[in-house]
Amino acid sequence: MHKGELVFLALWVPLAVVVAVAHWLCGWLGTIAGILLALPVSFLVLSLLPVALAGGSPAAQWRMWLLAGTVWALFHRNGAFPVSCFAWGWIALFALNAAAAVLRGFGVLLGGHGSAALWRRLIFLLGIHLAAIVAGWFWGWWWALAGGALIAAWYCLAVLRPRGQWLGPVRCMCGGGRVLITIDDGPDPHDTPLLLDLLDRHRVKAVFFMIGEKVAAHPELAREVLRRGHEIGNHTMTHPHAAFWCAGPWRTRREIAACQQTIERVTGFTPRWFRAPAGHRNFFTHPVAGGLGLEVVAWRRRGFDAVERDAAKVLRRILTKIGPGDIVLVHEATPIAAAVLEGVLQDERVRASAFPLSTAEMIP
Description:
By secondary structure, this protein is of the alpha/beta class. The protein has three domains: 3-103, no CATH class; 112-159, no CATH class; 180-353, TIM Barrel (Alpha-Beta Barrel), CATH 3.20.20.370. The chain contains 14 helices and seven strands. The strands form two sheets. It has a five-stranded parallel β-sheet. Strands 4-5 form a two-stranded parallel ribbon. Helix 11 (285-291) links the parallel strand 4 and strand 5 (295-296). Helix 5 (115-139) runs antiparallel to helix 6 (141-159). The radius of gyration is 29 Å and the shape is elongated.
């Protein structure tokens, strides 16, 4: 426990016992006798309760105390002051501990990778929808509607924020105080050679997050990226940027696994990083990516160059607050790809901290 929690409980538990004992004695023996005997009887109770509520560990013992206090509170929550205050205090403590247990359980549920984790997430997702339907069946359709809206809001917040951590860890910073340049949506027969030449000229290495279909169509470009000392990341097989955020477990597996296999077959290189299309992971991304040995990577700086056609605006968005440890996102296969990358590489802060030699320690 936190030190503050221990201090609070060291004060709360004895006071709660004194109030409970005094209330009982006053009701049994009268007010004066109850008050006079409250302290000595409370000391006796505090000596006996640790034996009666003993556990195999401090955590188990606290759970016994919490359960006993909550049971007492349920019978005295409507009593007179100060009994009701301590009763509701026990109920609040129980609620806080229950919420913490739910959060821990949620973390366990979403943890792990591979097929088992995938099935756990699928069952959980179906379960919360079923719970909303059951609520509507018993209490009216408004409850089902409210539950569905709450689930939808939570899901959208979880999957549509590229740097969100609710569904699993997402790498947004790189190690060593470096600036890491990442290039999405290649390889592209027009842009990839230009970008490689720019990176060579500035002696900077980057991670190219490649689309599996494009790797299969332009295998020589993917191999050239590796030959020049850069690294390739997994960016799904077909880049379904409009639908990946809501993809089911099997489509998610197909997209990520097929891209991984294509890159390995074409280049002999096994990617270690995965980036979702538009950064929008779905509920099943982490179990699939983790099962393939991939870490999910997002970014810290981007300029929306996939949709913006003014390179100057893109560069202002990227470079205004750029600093050590930032992962920069730029795209190829756009009309301004070369202009954007050159502008980033010409920035003094990037030149001073970008990766100059190898990608081997890019995101330790």
